[in-house]
Write a structure and sequence with these properties.
The chain has 71 residues and is an all-beta fold. The protein has no helices and four strands. This is DUF2180 family protein.
């Protein structure tokens, strides 16, 4: 795979969109793996990876997208 930006050999892929990224263009940020309900406090908690590879070009939506056709 090649880097989306410069065509060098990719060292990783964006966790959100899958674009290949070389070490010069890779950015890092949090990625939410799962959300679950806490048994002790009865509130939602998330399991987050702090240093997930990101391209910085794609823009994941901040709110969930309704998909009634899957219900």
């Amino acid at each position: 795979m090649l880097c989306w930006f410069c065509a060098k050999a990719a060292r990783g892929a964006c966790r959100f969109c899958g674009r290949g990224l070389c070490e010069d263009h890779a950015k890092f940020g949090p990625y939410l793996l799962e959300v679950h309900r806490s048994q002790r406090r009865d509130r939602a908690e998330g399991l987050v990876v702090e240093d997930a590879v990101q391209c910085g070009t794609c823009r994941p939506r901040p709110q969930p997208v309704p998909m009634p056709e899957l219900d």
